[in-house]
Amino acid sequence: MREPARRVTARDVAADVGCSVSSVSLVVSGKADGRVRQETQDAIHEAIARLGYRLNTTASALASGTSLGVGFLSPDPTNPFFSMVLDGLGDALADHFALSVLVPTGGADYDRGTVRRALAGDFAGLVLASPSERLLDDFVPTCPTILLDAGGPVNDLASIDVDLGQALSELAAHLTGLGHRRIAYLGFRREKASVQGRRHQLASALQQRGAVLDPTTVEITELTESAAQAAFTDTWPVWRANGVSAIVCGDELFAYGVLRSCRAQGIRVPGELSLVGFDNLPYSSLIDPPLTSVDLSARLLGRTAGEALLDLVSTGRPPASHRVPATLVVRGSTAAPATPQAPQAIAR
Amino acid sequence: MREPARRVTARDVAADVGCSVSSVSLVVSGKADGRVRQETQDAIHEAIARLGYRLNTTASALASGTSLGVGFLSPDPTNPFFSMVLDGLGDALADHFALSVLVPTGGADYDRGTVRRALAGDFAGLVLASPSERLLDDFVPTCPTILLDAGGPVNDLASIDVDLGQALSELAAHLTGLGHRRIAYLGFRREKASVQGRRHQLASALQQRGAVLDPTTVEITELTESAAQAAFTDTWPVWRANGVSAIVCGDELFAYGVLRSCRAQGIRVPGELSLVGFDNLPYSSLIDPPLTSVDLSARLLGRTAGEALLDLVSTGRPPASHRVPATLVVRGSTAAPATPQAPQAIAR
DNA sequence: ATGAAAGCGCTAACAA
DNA sequence: TTGTTAGCGCTTTCAT
């Protein structure tokens, strides 16, 4: 039963050395050169090591008015996309801040409650990944905040987004080149503008090549395989009747869900149905069939967000919103449709 | 160009209401009932809302001597195993602490530097996932710490571990039942005791059923697919010469790496080589072939660690080390060996 | 029921 | 170059 062992403070060190706490503070924070004599510095260092002194970062933060960490919110820390974003973010921030991951409670998307907890955390900055529309509506930032994958700036908050333009036209070219004429989109329902943007970009890229995005819209609110599996199972009869021969999924997890549904129903992929995912996870190339993917550069996205936040925190000037380009990775889940496709009229 | 907007403090609220800061503090911390008159409480609540006051958690932590978060260290936040552990941890801790994920710098395993940063963070507690042997050697905890997947308690630190006993004998029964007689193990080199333990458990389970664990040991230090791919490519000639017909991988990522190597070399899985992974990621059932897996119950592991930590932090008594049972999930990557296997002598 | 006051451990003026 | 001092915003006795 050992003592609570009162923590060694800067004062203890100062007393031991016979100097003042300010000198200790200066030495510890590395601002000592030219302000504290070398001998004193040495003595302080020695005492710190001997006594086992460690800076109390809480007190330090309070006194200096700076905060210690930045918060990261994502709908689901389990989704590989967000893990990779987190990894990139860590890269950019590691030397400057601790990264707090606010895990939404109960497997749901993060909501006001989670954000409130984040705001209570006295962070130096906040990164909101794939925030939902409702959330942003009444979100009042209390610290430098940047959005990630919000589809563009919202309420003066900069957003780091994926630029899908190039990848989407490549995708359209790829699919139409294979002979697909009617493609469906299985999206993630988050912030309106973003979703519409993705759909629209894909739709117009397809149109330019004489193909069509099926107007039957499916937007999933839950970022899980099983939700996608269920949604696809429900909607496939309609899409099939419409002549859809390829599906583009707004999240790779969705593609996995579709795949499961196809297996369960005996739908051949590719052939009867071609499948494209957004993300390009490490597993894309291992699954059966290997998934053709739009690579969202998650890690780069995270790093860019980290850098933007660093900039925002230090300069106080709102950073420009950034776009990092996505790239198309073609694999085995897309092939020519089994039945030749009729040319389509322009949608809507 | 808006003002730095000095933060609303408890004093502002007190001044507004015409009471003292102590009352505000009591109300905010929920200790007001019976100590502050109801009218005053109401007035304070009203002022808080109107003024937009939020508790400064840094100051609160300093004054009360409590800390705000717990730190989580893992070799790689990108590895789905750790994401799931993190998720479980978040579940257990969410209402009590913020979870800080300390991301190791530069993609390497976390080292003393990372730990030092963690220790500097004034956490209420620390969770060290899959710590390396060297790390623990000279690790001096400065706050309640629990280990996760360390293979058992180390230096008085409790560890939450997977109990492989049952799953491993099922696995041995499964493999020998299929006709395998010589199995190799591709492990993750971390803390010695743990690794030896896993190997030994598997070895003895196999022996009891007349099969043998190939003595050629491969222990990978880096938790990546590509490391496993390379290691397997190097060692396969030896294993093949020894008559190995099945491989058990200590991490599912390793199994993916082996799979890639097999594809590259045209080794048929299963048939020429059966493959088993440890983890049972969501992707196990989608890859080709679906992976037979020892499910490590990552999420439960995380949740258990969280609960143990909560207990440790609040009671101060070291929690018991826990073992959560793994389970075998049989899928398509294991089958009878193409060539019948000779009965094997007992290894070493 | 309420408020005054003494810190928590550190930082940053300012004096010396 | 060094030490003294006044806080940072909150919690927590302890009087009142």
The average pLDDT of chain A is 87
CATH class of the largest domain in chain A: Alpha Beta
Biggest interface, CB < 8 A? A-B, 49 and 50 residues
How is the CATH topology of the largest domain in chain A named?
Rossmann fold
Largest sheet of chain A: 7 strands, mixed
- CATH homologous superfamily designation of the largest domain in chain A: Response regulator
Label the CATH architecture of the largest domain in chain A: 3-Layer(aba) Sandwich
H/E series of chain A: HHHHEHEHEHEEHEHEEHEHEEHEE
Task: Give the CA-based shape of chain A.
Answer: elongated
Number of helices of chain A: 12
Helix fraction of chain A by DSSP (H/I, runs of at least 4) = 40-55%
